[in-house]
Amino acid sequence: xxxDYYALLNVPTDAxxxxxxxxxxxxxxxxxxxxxxxxxxxxRMTAINDxxxxxxxxxxxxxxxxxxxxxxxxxxxxxxxxxxxxETILRGGWTLLxxxxxxxxxxxxxxxxxxxxxxxxxSVRLRAIxxxxxxxxxxxxxxxxxxxNLALQTVVIDLMHSRRHGTxxxxxxxxxxxxxxxx
Length: 183
What we know:
The chain is 44% helix and 22% strand. The protein is α/β, with parallel strands linked by helices.
């Protein structure tokens, strides 16, 4: 069973990073073994540190939130599908410039692409993704809520149906990176 880090830090699931840090500092002052003689203080502090290390890191928090959702839904397949897609992309031979867990920026020679991973893609989420990166964005989604309002430099790949939506790839090098996902 997954430990509820939000409950452990006594913060809501939509807490900001500042709220998480404030909660952590308050609990650290209360349970640090140097300040609290209780025999359980060291154990509690270890659990508090674990929770903070996950929730204070954007990528770690995203992975944790996805695990929580998966556990609640009784074994959602989204996480394994997205993990496999990410591993496939990373084997494509491109240089990884940035990876925050939900988005990666890859480069090969003069080419650059932003790859976004989505359990469920809506037009609102797609619009937000399209605004964040000026170049080509490719969204790999497990579930797509139609209709999608596609931007000019955005490709959406439906991982469950091996279909591409939106603009075509600029050239065969880009197409080759994503060929494994398309029929």
